[in-house]
Amino acid sequence: MLLIIAETSPANGLFSLHKAFQLASITCNKKDVSFVVDDCKNVSSYFTGKGFNYSINSEPRKLFKENISLVLFFKDKLSGKDKKILTRAKKKSIPTAKFSYMGANPEDNDIIIDHSPMSYTSSNEEKKILSGPAYSILHNKYIHFHTIKKKYNKKLRNILLSPGDEFPYRELRKLTETLISNNFNVKIIPGKNFKRFNSKTLKRIYPSLKISGTPESYARSFFEADLAIIDPEFSAVKASAAGTPAIYLPQNNNSDLTASHYEEEGAGVIFKRWKNEDYSEILELLKFFSLEQREEMGKTGKTLVDGKGVYRIAEVLNQYLNS
């Protein structure tokens, strides 16, 4: 039995839970998976039709009555209750795995899964570290578009904006205005702080603007773009898998380190001064993205991320489940 302790905070839109379903479906039979989730709006309906067993706010002592072979913490930071589950698993000699980013909050787990570009190992040979973009969990559609030969427009036209949740609306509006007024086709993947009235306002001012809804995957949007302007912490792997060059807008230490890695590899470039009064400087940067440059960057991105990380993780987890 695989026991998954999943993040269900309304703040992340159950995003990590969707990834947990994807990994669980590949790793083992659905009847051999049990989820433990916190009570939040719509969480029960989210499990409807998925075929997984789940419990809400279960006490740690009640979770180990079944024959559990592995405990997977599908969250960045463990709560007090999660730590009790971890302690109980250790007492019963049950291996545990946890997701991390940039090596943060690894706790005392046997497997650490970290898709950040910071590749590292453990001095403890009994612990297994799965680190690097090769272990990114992406929707299967990214694998599909990764295998398709991307045809790049001779002239840079279609720009995808996915600057993340921390990017202020007023900055997004300035950036959008700069690009559209210079005859670029712009599509926005809105962050969680992007309100419905923001969408209506922008569409009224810029009729040619496209704003994405909430599809199953944004893979097609990334694939169809000539260039993506993105928050690197969350979207660098997506742009790379789709073969789309990127301009990175780092907004914290993690995204700064992530952007530096992908820039050094040659998949994109950093634009740090995103709090300018205007975005005229980004127009100069766009001149760098010639057809040849975009083709080369797209090819580099595809070598960094192939979208098959979920299968690599499942292979390792199966080694513990079947031992």
**What letter string, H or E per element, gives the SSE order?**
EHEHEEHEEEHEHEHEHEHEHEHHH
For the record, what CATH class of the largest domain applies?
Alpha Beta
- Low-confidence runs: none
Residues in β-strands, percent: 15-25%
Structural class determined from secondary elements: alpha/beta
Keywords:
323 residues; alpha/beta; Rossmann fold; seven-stranded parallel sheet; six-stranded parallel sheet; 12 helices
Describe this structure in words.
The chain has 323 residues and is an alpha/beta fold. The protein has 2 domains: 2-138 and 308-321, Rossmann fold; 140-304, Rossmann fold (3-Layer(aba) Sandwich). 38% of the residues lie in helices and 16% in strands. The chain contains 12 helices and 13 strands. It has helices at 15-27, 43-47, 80-91, 140-147, 169-180, 196-205, 219-224, 232-242, 253-265, 280-286, 291-304, 309-321, and strands at 2-6, 33-37, 53-56, 70-74, 96-100, 111-114, 128-131, 158-162, 185-188, 210-211, 227-230, 246-248, 268-270. The strands form 2 sheets. Strands 3-2-1-4-5-6-7 form a 7-stranded parallel beta sheet, with helices on both faces. Strands 10-9-8-11-12-13 form a 6-stranded parallel beta sheet, with helices on both faces. α1 (15-27) links the parallel β1 and β2 (33-37). The longest helix has 14 residues, at 291-304. The radius of gyration is 21 Å and the shape is globular. The mean pLDDT is 90.
